[in-house]
Amino acid sequence: MAPTRQTSWDPVLLVSQIISIQTLHYLTLSVLIPPLLAVFAEPSSLMYEGGASNVGMIMDWREMASRPTVRGMTGEERWSSYYGAWSGGKQVGGGWMDGGWDGRADPIRGWVIAACWMIACSADIYYLYTLIRRPRLILDFALTLVFNHFVLTTYYSASIPTSLFFWLVMIAGSVWTVILAEQLCVKREMTEGLVISAPRDEAEEMEMGGLLRRD
Fold first, then answer.
1. How high does pLDDT run on average in the chain?
2. What are 152-161's contacts with CB under 8 Å, separation 24+?
3. Which among 92, 66, 70 has a CA at the least distance from the CA of 79?
4. Residue 86's beta-bridge partner residues?
5. What is the pLDDT of residues 26-54, one digit of tens each?
6. In this structure, what DSSP letter does residue 94 have?
7. What is the enclosing helix (H) or strand (E) of 83?
8. Comparing C-alpha atoms, which of 92, 45, 83 is closest to residue 67?
């Protein structure tokens, strides 16, 4: 009977892997989002949201959903109520009349952030393949990443994500990551677990045959 491999539950390793995957995912987004937003997003509305390097472009689900995040005054009209934008506790805009912004959200910005999220999910395939390695854990870590982002983005924006587009991007990214990462991990395990002995050459077999006959 083949010996069974014992696997122990290591909470320190588990937590460190979760933090590593989450950090690498956000690091990938922080590299992709600012330059792409600077090129494709509408400049005036992007400035009133804090700029392309604002952490809200990653952590605020409303940015991906192309919803405005600036605060408005109670009792005013929908678009004229916006009196400024804030980032990091500092006011970065004094109102849409000052900079010529009409108060409308930029849909291109949401598509750019969604595309960056999908690219980051593609990078997650390599991260999971390298750090996690075991196929049966890929799904758990992929869903943990989305759940952690849900908690963080809800805390950051002080609102639960209600955008269908946001959830579709989350689901599509998770499915893409799980399918590819599991396939790669399974393929590696099959390659590493399959041991094929090299064929003996003819001279070695003849020598071994001669020794057997002598015995």
1. 80
2. 152/59, 153/59, 153/60, 153/61, 154/61, 156/56, 156/59, 156/60, 157/56, 157/59, 157/60, 157/61, 157/62, 157/69, 159/62, 161/61, 161/65
3. 70
4. 91
5. 999 999 999 999 999 888 888 878 888 99
6. S
7. strand 82-87
8. 45
C-alpha separations of 141 from 16, 104, 134, 136, 204 in Å: 12, 37, 11, 10, 50
Q: Which of 101, 127, 95, 116 is nearest to 42 (CA)?
A: 101
Per-residue b or e along 148-179, where b marks 16 or more CB atoms closer than 10 Å to that residue's CB:
bbbebbeeebeeebeeebbeebbeebbebbbe
**Structure confidence at residue 2 (pLDDT):** 43
Helix and strand counts by DSSP (H, E) for the chain: 9, 3
Tokens of 210: 């001669």
Would you place residue 69 in the very low, low, confident or very high pLDDT band (cuts 50, 70, 90)?
A: confident
Q: What's the N-to-C CA distance of the chain in angstroms?
A: 32
Distance CA 215, CA 213 (A): 5
Q: What is the phi-psi region of residue 159: left when phi exceeds 0, alpha when psi lies from -120 to 50, beta otherwise? A: beta
The secondary element (H helix, E strand) that includes residue 90 is strand 90-93
Length in residues, the chain? 215
- For the residues 181-192, what does the mean pLDDT come to? 90
- Locate 175 and state its tokens: 């499915």
